[in-house]
Every structure is written in structure tokens, then in C-alpha cells.
Amino acid sequence: MRRSTRLVRELQPGRNVTDLSGALRAAREQAGLTVEEVSERTKIKSAFLQAIERGDFEQLPGEFFTRAFLRTYARELHLPADEIVAAYDTRTGRAAAVNAAAPVVIERQAPRLPVDESLTLRSPRRAWPTVAVVAAVLALVWALNREAPETAAGPQPIGTSGVVKPAVPPEPATSPAAAAPQTLRIEIRPTRVMWVAAAADGNRVLYRLLHPGETITLEATNEFWFRIGDAGAFEYSVNGVPGRPLGTSGEVREVQITRESLASFQR
Q1: Are the CB atoms for 244 and 266 separated by under 8 Å?
Q2: What is the DSSP letter of 267?
Q3: How many CA atoms lie less than 13 Å away from 198 in the CB half-sphere?
Q4: Which terminus of the chain, N or C, has fewer Cβ atoms within 10 Å?
Q5: E strand or H helix that includes residue 147
Q6: How many Å apart are CA 228 and CA 246, to the nearest integer?
């Protein structure tokens, strides 16, 4: 907790990226970890970690991975990840650009269903004759049951209509709520040569060219981030359901898929 408080003080406005990098390096050294040990734990290359600690962010593979690396690095050192990323955005002048960038939003419009006239509410005035008939029938049944001789057990017959059975109210229909998926699973099937960068829960899991005929399977607990070099060639399925198109041929897109937005990406 003391280390975290000290780092927050060092991240106050007025300091630059070099101070941020120095604070991260000091936190790693105080934890007694080497760069190689952090690399093994976070699966981030040692060269990238060293670039972060030097403040040489130009050596990292783009803003998407830079912010993901910072967040993962901070979590490994038990530091406030959100504050570190916010400090980086402020010091590099990218805060406005990050706030303006919006993930792909694909809306699903519910189909318009026909109205079932039998389910619409009727006028109370029309309902009264029906109520009166039912009341009269019930009164007649009650009178006949009262005049019939009582037996030791069981319901009494009425005329020749058989045995009157007590009405049992129907049990309400229940539909169990759909369980939230335990994991997010995506299968990528490129239709032509394209490049894809992907991170699962903040850790880079894919960064290369993909070729037609390949099937790439990735899993995450909470979220995926993708940077796609040719959105029109990116065919995929999410948790076994075919995915909706993410863009046109040659279009570069950045996409975030989370548990909450999962349905927006399924056909």
C-alpha cells in the first residue's frame, strides 16, 4: 500500500513520461524482480519492458499495445493500473484522442412481431356479461352440491356429469435465465492474407499475418481487443455463433469484445 501511495504521488501533474517510466522501474526493483522475471509472468517481451522503463515508447508496437502493456505491467506490480494509463495518456497528449476513439458498435434491432389480437385487453363493459354467466353457473353448482347427500370422503357427483374435481391453478411457466458464458472464445478464419493484432484480458496473444485456410482460436475471461488490417477479410465466430461483419475490404478497425457486448457481435 505504501508503494502504491508513493507512486500515485509521483504521477501527479507536472511530471513527464520519463518520470512515469522511472516510477515503474523503481516499483519493480522494490519488488525484487528482474525484467526477465516480469517478462516471464506477463508474457511481454523483455525488450518492450525495457523500452517502457526508458520512456522509449516509440519502440513499442503502437498505442493499442502500449496501453495494454502498461496496464498488465502495473497489475503485476500491484499498482493502480488505471492511474498509470491515465498518466501516460496525459503526459503524451493522447488523452483527448483516447476519449474520442470509440469501439465498433454494432446494434441489433429486435424483429417486429405481429400483434396477437387475442392477447389485447378487452373493454371492461364487454367483460361484464361473461362474468355474469360464470357467476350464475357457479351458483347453480353450489346449490346442487348443497342438496346432494354427503359421503365420508371424495367429491360428490352432479347429475350424470361425473365427479367434480377441484380446480388446480396452472403452474406459472418459468424459463431459466441464460447463463453468462464462463469464457469468451473466438475463432478467426481469414479469407485472404491479412494482419491482426490481438490481446486477451490485456495480454498480447496474436501479432502476425494470417493466411487463408488458417483457423485461429483464442480465449479470454473478460475481454478481447483487436486491431485488424483488413476488416473485410476477417471472418470469425464468437462462442460458436458466426460473427457480424466488422468492416469493408482493406479497412483498418479496432474492436473490443466484452461479456456485455458479446451479443452485438453475433449474428
Answers
A1: yes
A2: -
A3: 21
A4: N
A5: helix 124-147
A6: 9
